[in-house]
Design brief:
- By secondary structure, the chain is mainly α.
- The radius of gyration is 27 Å and the shape is elongated.
- It has one domain.
- It starts with 15 loop residues before the first helix and ends in an 8-residue tail after the last helix.
- It is built from eleven helices and no strands.
């Protein structure tokens, strides 16, 4: 499932990245003939012009609101840790400097402000709604171009009523309903269509999910290790805290500063560790990594099946299987990430 721009749009072609990918496929299949290339080019242009503008709008909105939501979420965790560290530092080291507490007040106020802005401007809702719509429109473009004159229904892919009620789904369905009539495909079109499906749809998505899986798993492991280090540090501070204070003098260490520092570490380190654990769970790094790895495996199998296809009918079947896989994955992502709002509790 995409969290980023997946279209590969480029100024090199009038149809952006879509057009360049198609042109490359035609160039790799010179035996298809100029007439076939001309007809498929007209068909491709019709489909891209129908789905493309709506996809671009949804993609741009998804990127915009994703950045706002993710930055706000990370800021909430950082500010929460900062508030604890400020009040702890003031209480332990600066009893009489009450003005330091103003830092905690500012941090908590900033958190509440982010809660308010996130809810009022619907950063999270706009992100997941726009991402779902963008990916379904993107799938629609491929399916419409590759599946002939039929219009595959999408209601069978709804994982739950929550997904089916999403505004973006209704807009995608409307796009399908208004799709211009497309001529039936012929077996002469097969080489170009197979090339396009393999290299522009399947391989591209397979590569994306492989990279996504590695990136998300790396994030999960780094945050897990850092969080564990915080708790080990807490254990060490607690053990050292057990040492009789008179021993500090034999080690030529000042009594009070050491005890105060250990106290701050015993409060601050587990706070940071807990925040990291919450951040890791909030963004579902491990689940997304595992799901992307499975998607890459499924796409590899579909690619192998596509190579065996020798008719337009066989191609349509692979297209339908791929569409089902993609939309189910999109819906699962929507259901999973859709639960992770910025909220007070």
């Amino acid at each position: 499932m995409s969290d980023e721009n997946m279209s590969g749009a480029s100024a090199e072609s009038p149809l952006g990245g879509w057009g360049k990918g198609f042109s490359d496929c035609v160039a790799r299949q010179p035996g298809s003939g100029s007439e076939v290339a001309k007809e498929l080019s007209a068909r491709f242009k019709t489909v891209v012009e129908h789905f493309g503008p709506a996809y671009d709008i949804a993609e741009e909105r998804a990127e915009e609101f994703q950045k706002k939501y993710r930055r706000a979420s990370i800021a909430v965790y950082i500010l929460a840790v900062l508030a604890v560290l400020i009040i702890s530092t003031q209480y332990i080291f600066y009893h009489d400097d009450h003005w330091i507490v103003a830092g905690e007040v500012i941090a908590i106020f900033a958190i509440l402000l982010l809660f308010h802005l996130g809810k009022r401007r619907e950063w999270h809702l706009n992100w997941v709604e726009s991402r779902l719509e963008a990916e379904w429109l993107r799938n629609g473009l491929f399916v419409a171009f590759l599946s002939g004159g039929t219009r595959p229904g999408i209601s069978r892919h709804w994982a739950c009523k929550w997904v089916s009620d999403a505004p973006g789904v209704a807009r995608v369905q409307e796009k399908w309903n208004n799709l211009p009539e497309l001529a039936s495909l012929r077996d002469a079109d097969l080489p170009v269509l197979k090339d396009y499906m393999a290299n522009v749809w399947l391989v591209d998505q397979q590569r994306y999910h492989e990279e996504k899986s590695k990136k998300q798993m790396a994030l999960h492991r780094r945050i897990s290790v850092f969080g564990e280090v915080m708790f080990w540090g807490t254990l060490v501070a607690a053990i050292v805290h057990l040492v009789p204070h008179k021993w500090y003098h034999s080690w030529h260490l000042p009594d009070e500063p050491v005890v105060n520092t250990l106290t701050l570490l015993a409060i601050g380190l587990p706070t940071i560790g807990a925040a990291l654990t919450g951040l890791r769970s909030h963004f579902e790094y491990h689940k997304i990594a595992s799901r992307s790895a499975m998607m890459a495996d499924h796409l590899t199998i579909l690619h192998e099946d596509l190579e065996k296809v020798d008719s337009v009918a066989g191609l349509k079947e692979i297209v339908r299987e791929t569409e089902t896989l993609m939309l189910q994955e999109n819906s699962d992502w929507y259901f999973t990430i859709g639960m992770h709002h910025i909220e007070k509790g």
